[in-house]
Amino acid sequence: MTTIERNACPALILAPLGRDAPVAAALLREAGTEAVICADLEHFSALLNDEIGCAVVTEEALRDADITRVAAWVRRQPEWSDFPFIVLTHRGHAADHNSGARTLIRALGNVVFLERPFHPMTFVSVVATAQRGRHRQYEARSRMEELRESEARLRIALTAGQLGQWELDLPPTHFAASEAARAVLGRTGSRTLTYADFEACLHRDDRGRMRDAIKLSMETRTDVAIEFRCIWPDGTLHWVDFRARHVLDRERKAARLVGVSSDITARKTAEANLQRMNETLEAKVSERTSQLERAHQTVLDEIRQREHAEEVLRQVQKMEMIGQLTGGVAHDFNNLLMAVMGNLELLRKQVRDEKLVRLVDGALQGARRGASLTQRLLAFARQQDLRIESIHLSRLIRGMADLLERSVGAGIELALTLPEELPLTLADANQIELALLNLVVNARDAMPDGGTISIAVEVAHATQCVDLADGDYMRVSVADTGYGMNATTLSKAMEPFFTTKGLGKGTGLGLSMVHGLALQLNGALRLESAVGLGTQAELWLPVAPEAAEVPAPVEAARDESAVVAQGVTILLVDDDALISDSTAYLLEDLGHEVIEADSGANALEVLRSGKKVDLLFTDYSMPKMTGMQLAHAARELRPGLPIVMATGYAELPAASTTDIVRLRKPYQQHQLVAEIARALRGVR
User: Fold this and answer.
1) Given 100, 141, 335, 363, which residue has the most CB atoms within 10 angstroms?
2) What is the band of 382 on the pLDDT scale with cuts at 50, 70, 90?
3) Under a CB-based contact definition with an 8 Å cutoff, are residues 127 and 30 in contact?
4) What predicted TM-score, i.e. pTM, was given to this entire model?
């Protein structure tokens, strides 16, 4: 018999005559759904609510009955709801031959007529279809609630940032502005603000600049970023920062600009006052004697230092903001890649046609490149998963000398200065090697005609630095004799996706990845360069505590997959259905039995039920209960339970239980084998 999907909502049954009610209830319960029998129409109306999955009603129960209350409830349904009614009739369900049916359709809306007598399988199938439709409505309700919450958060963020939101159709016609945006322009109240009103409030000397900025943006599809003066109704002048981005139509043409505006009058006033103060100061200083000139020079030096410190701070804040945005995007992209790569791996095993195999391999290669890109983005965002250990930098670089030699190629000399007597540093050896390789490759590309790359390691001390805490550091410098960078290029060199290389020759993530790694290790990346004098990159890493030791070499471990002699029962927990399905298929393909749960609460119910569970495989980032909270609760129910936790980036708390195996997304099937074996090896 057809079964109704798990977690189906209750079904109401109204069949006061004969045995229809108990028979229908028995069929539904046998199929796995809860059935509630209503004694009469009043009882039925009282039980109707949004959490009921469907209703089964006999035609005679509604014939000559007052269904006003039921019809009113149907009309009051929220926008996401279209409650399904299944009407059992002896007269067929064609509305054009049955006036009673047409009346029910008008009153109840979503009605399916099922003619009696019917086969039990037919009845259960009709109810299952109605339940699935109701489940889709619940999903729509969840999405609508998420959208409302997202819009509310956006409004809060805009209000907190004192930003006004506006939209402008292109070419400029219709202009829509939020209350905060109108307030920035000095136009409050309920009156609609047109584009003509907007232009009218601009300073007459800035109207042409605004038109030119919009025209240029339409032609080049670039963002709008302009500061202009605005005349308020009371005659006062205010400065406004105006920023926007294009929204494209179906034909990929710029349809409108969507942006934010803010009042920067205070900042402009401060800048003007500062400029006037500087001009006055310079005028007075020029009239001073030579004795006062020395004091004036000291003041200028302090101003330059302050401005430099402010510029460094602004740059750090900008990179932090970009890093947070980049990390979030990379984390979500990792989840998408997880589903793609898992399904492709399984598909690869099933395909036999050589052409299809090449196509699948090509898709897998593209997905792996995407995973590599997300790792670089996470490195820049300081959210990559690091394996911290004590490292002797000279020995590490000496061990990768052959790789560096092959990377630079002929015509470039590699000079190494690697003292042996150096303190250790705490870092991820693999990531440090990747960072050094990035710096060396950048140096190589800056010397197309050959030259020398010098790599040196030494101890350095930092005091009162903007980007470093006071203390001792290991400084790894990579210097080249290339053509160098000008000041503009140098200021942007560590920004993500910035590159001076030709199209297809660089991602612009190399230096930003090294920069993010250095910050994640409480260090810094510094660049010094001048046109014609080459470039020197310095990677500063904190010296490890004196008690730290270089880890002893680990003997080659036996094949981890051999730990699992046969399939085990795995409780798989993930709130993302795509990832859960993909991972379940990978595990089942390995011969394991999989029990799926879409939340921590459901997973705990499985553990309390006493079912056999050999290993818990859970995602970390889940709503209501995180993977780490689930792990602690699971260990309370089943001490010593092996746990593997999947994570999109380094988001686990520092005090995470050390015997929980962490698996970084996106993972492949052979990684699943290795990490599951490692988790089971800890308890077997």
Assistant:
1) 335
2) very low
3) no
4) 0.36
Cβ neighbourhood burial of 193 (10 Å; 0-12, 13-18, 19+):
middle
d(CA 435, CA 443) in angstroms, rounded, equals: 12
Task: Tell me, letter by letter, the H, E, C secondary structure of 209-268.
Answer: HHHHHHHHHHHHCCCEEEEEEEECCCCCEEEEEEEEEEEECCCCCEEEEEEEEEECHHHH
> What tokens were used for 378?
């996470």
Cβ atoms of 484 and 532 within 8 Å: the answer is yes
Q: For 171-213, write each residue's pLDDT tens digit.
A: 777 888 888 888 888 887 767 778 888 888 889 988 889 888 8
8 A C-beta contact, residue 561 and residue 681 = no
For 45, list phi and psi in degrees, rounded to 5.
Answer: -65, -35
| Burial (0-12, 13-18, 19+ Cβ within 10 Å), 364 | middle
CA distance 109 to 102: 10
Q: Give the per-residue pLDDT at 507.
A: 56
Bond preceding residue 84 cis, omega within 30 of 0? no
Distance CA 229, CA 261 (A): 12
If phi > 0 it is left, if psi is from -120 to 50 it is alpha, else beta; for residue 518 that is: alpha
The residue type at 60: E
Confidence at residue 36, expressed as pLDDT on a 0 to 100 scale: 94
Token pair, residue 159, equals 């209000």
Nearest 10 degrees: Cα torsion 469, 470, 475, 480: 70
Task: Please list the alpha-helical segments (H only) found in 381-414.
Answer: 393-399, 401-408
Ranking 20-24, 409-413, 424-428 by mean pLDDT, the lowest is 409-413
- Return d(Cα 480, Cα 450) in angstroms, integer: 10
Q: How do residues 542-566 score in pLDDT, each as one tens digit?
A: 998 864 554 544 443 444 444 443 5
- Measure the CA dihedral 97/99/101/102, to 10°: 100
* Nearest to 678, CA basis, from 654, 661, 664, 658: 661
* pLDDT (0 to 100) of residue 502: 54
